Amino acid sequence: MKAAVIVFPGINRERDMARTLKLVSGREPAMVWHADTALPAGTDLAVVPGGFSYGDYLRCGAIAARAPIMDAVRAFAAKGGLVLGVCNGFQILCETGMLPGVLMRNAGLKFICRNVYLRVERSDTPFTRGYNAGQVICVPTAHGEGNYVADADTIARLEGQGRVVFRYTSPEGTDSPEWNFNGATNAIAGIVNARGNVLGMMPHPENHVEAALGTTDGRGLFQGLVDHLAAAA
Amino acid sequence: MKAQVTVTLKSGILDPQGKAIEGALKSLGVGGVTSVRQGKVFDIEIADGDRADAEAKLKEAAEKLLANTVIENYRVEIES
């Protein structure tokens, strides 16, 4: 897997992401600066990591979404390339218009940093083939603006097309407002675009891949991508 | 030329910050406040020239960056 991690000023999770990509795929990802205008030749996964690009000025992800490299990421996705956005990366992908909707301030107005539970809604995407549909995974989250909002038509379309791939649930996998800690519409934690090659999610699967940290529930996402690309090659 | 772009949340979009401010006003005893919605104002100076051109530029700025039109409306005003 030839991954490229996009680096913006103010991003702080790019090294966690690079470490995980190396650990799971065995190959060091390319770190690509925001002012660059092209992804390295042969890239098969572009990752927009988490952090606070441009200090969250204006709106989370708004300025990063207009950075020169994002034209290349958009073109890469348009050709079917796999794009993963985590946390600020999800906000950035929404701001570019590659994913619908927007991440608003958490309903309780607090920055929330803790482990959360996600139900994997489907296993037939490149991003979730490492899991079983209905499986519950425990991954950390750390954000102040993760409350997913879109107009009613968009939500209906996302749900109708099965594009909600991760949802906040209880540890048992049941829907419960108390576990939808940021107030996201329909407890949406992660969505894919219509073509299914762009995923945005708020929690951090890259931080739960090593047994030393207690659980490796995040590993399936990266292992699934490696397997998908190996099968496609 | 001086101009202002005002960005406000569309109706129907929840505004937890506005709600918190509304609550704070109530607890301060500021009576009669029935709703608060928070927005943004951009004070912009633009090189003197044609007013219609300036307005078009400001609209472009709002559409491309200042507002996220999924959730926000914007208004452009040029000082006469």
Q: How would you sum up this structure, described in words?
A:
The complex is a heterodimer of chains A (233) and B (80). With 233 residues, chain A is α/β, with parallel strands linked by helices. Chain A has one domain (3-232): Rossmann fold (3-Layer(aba) Sandwich). Helices cover 24% and strands 24% of the residues of chain A. Chain A has helices at residues 14-25, 68-78, 88-96, 152-160, 219-232, and strands at 3-7, 30-33, 45-48, 82-86, 102-104, 112-120, 136-143, 147-149, 164-168, 188-192, 198-201. In chain A, the strands form two sheets. In chain A, strands 2-1-3-4-11-10-9-6-7 form a nine-stranded mixed β-sheet, with helices on both faces. Chain A has a two-stranded antiparallel ribbon with strand order 5-8. In chain A, helix 1 (14-25) packs across helix 5. The longest helix of chain A has 14 residues, at 219-232. Chain A is globular, with a radius of gyration of 16 Å. The termini of chain A are close together. The model of chain A has no long low-confidence stretch (mean pLDDT 97). Chain B is α+β, with helices and mostly antiparallel strands and 80 residues long. Chain B has a single domain (2-29, 36-78), classed as 2-Layer Sandwich (Mth169, Chain: A), CATH 3.30.1280. Helix content of chain B is 35%, strand content 26%. Chain B is elongated, with a radius of gyration of 16 Å. In chain B, 9% of the residues are buried. The A-B interface holds A 58-59, 62-63, 66, 95, 100-102, 104-109, 147, 149-151, 183 and B 13-14, 16-17, 20, 64-66, 68, 70-71.
Topology (SSEs and partners):
The complex is a heterodimer of chains A (233) and B (80).
Chain A: E1 3-7, H1 14-25, E2 30-33, E3 45-48, H2 68-78, E4 82-86, H3 88-96, E5 102-104, E6 112-120, E7 136-143, E8 147-149, H4 152-160, E9 164-168, E10 188-192, E11 198-201, H5 219-232
Chain B: E1 2-9, H1 16-27, E2 40-45, H2 51-66, E3 72-78
Antiparallel strand pairs in B: 1-2, 1-3
